[in-house]
Input
Amino acid sequence: MIEIILLLGSDDYAIEHWPEAPDVIDYKGRPFSLRAGPRVPVATDHEFEPVAVYAPDELTEEEFQDLFYALQPKVAELRLKYS
Output
């Protein structure tokens, strides 16, 4: 399984587990695109599944980065190191 992180807004996100990570999805009637991953985190004291990050399709790369960093304090998987 892949841990799917959906960045919904500057203060909102969803986490799901899917068997695959397609390039584009429809999530609750809104198009999202794969922006990062799936990648496996570097070994820590906790075992993590591969992680993939999705954001609304209409966001520019800069807007995605802003949203990603805004949600880092709330989503542990966004703070992990990846190989």
In short: The beta strands are 2-9, 12-18, 24-27, 30-39, 51-56. The longest strand covers residues 30-39.
